[in-house]
Amino acid sequence: MAKRVYQAWKGSNKFILGGRLIFGPDAKSLIVTLALIIVPMIIFCIFVARHLRHEFSSDNAGYAVLVVAIGFTIYVLLLLFLTSARDPGIVPRNAHPPEEVMRFDSSASVEIGGRQTPSLQFPRTKDVTVNGVTVRVKYCDTCMLYRPPRCSHCSICNNCVERFDHHCPWVGQCIGMRNYRFFFMFVSSATLLCIYVFAMSAFYIKVLMDERRGTVWKAMKESPASVVLMAYCFISLWFVGGLTGFHLYLIGTNQTTYENFRYRAENRLNAYDRGCFSNFYEVFCTEVKPSRNNFRAFVQEEVQRPVLPSERGAESEMEDLGANPRSKVEDDLDIGEDLLKISQRRNIEIDQDVQSRGSNGTPENSMMVDSPMASGHRAPTIKSENRHSSYVRSGSWEIAPEVLVNATFTERSYTPSSETRL
Ligand SMILES: [Zn+2]
Ligand SMILES: [Zn+2]
To answer: Region Disordered: start and end of each range (predicted)?
Structure first.
């Protein structure tokens, strides 16, 4: 049965509900975070808010304390859910290196024993211009792509994430382009909730003092829950309040946490700062981009490669020889492998080589290359998770036609021995 994208996912994410919700690998820490919110709120509702119901001039006004507490908690939990259960902005991995990397540079290729090897040189970084400022983007070996500006690879989730801010262990998810707004709203709302609970607990202490006409110590003895809640909120405020302040500064200057930590020392020019108001507008008022991943989609198993006219000539020639010129390639690469290894996948084998093998010739790396003999495939198929027509196009087809006519292409996965075979 065909697998869905989330079942064949190469990142470290955890999925639930059939790929509808995506979490980081450390999603279990969410239980702790949930407990840190829910448990104090239950204590607050039972031991503080319940007693404050009748403390206001109008009887019903007192209920507002309870209603606000419950409503605010639900709101904070909803923001937590929006932050941690959805795609933070993962850039889908390429099944193959991009066209510009795989481009066969025949001038730089080396010809050994009648075989050509592709050039292994390709730029690891690229300069792109953002708002008139040159920004250097890096190539990600794991995802096999040039990262868009502000994108970074999360080592915990093992994905490239757009506008990567940081990986938050408390929410068990990357904070990136698609969930930064909710993350900030979660942290700032949690700060307000802390202030609210602290203030209401203090107010209850004051009410107890007035009622009993006692000292503050007596009142605190009477409601230890209020004291615990005030202490808890005071400590939490340092954390969530500090985080809120820090992120307010980051939003105002249009920086990510990653950029702030990484580039501060380098004193780099911030290409994204468009003024405080515009920066806030960008974070809170622009539309959240749709996810680039459809986790529930079925994995594309096979892709038909277009047959080029020059190739047809090669095919008919090979049919005369009784050999199928093309192979079905099973792309079972570990994408984490170094790109340099992958770039050696395609070896050009001149027909002399095929002839020497004859119809009995099986590819040396039979684990990776299905023999076309058994399947009788005419057109080659490439098995992969993603369609990458660019790969097919950029593959061997840019080789001079004269080479093509006399050649057959066997695409292989790199094995250390393949180098010695060259
Ligand atoms: Zn990556
Ligand atoms: Zn992450």
So the answer is: 308-329, 348-388
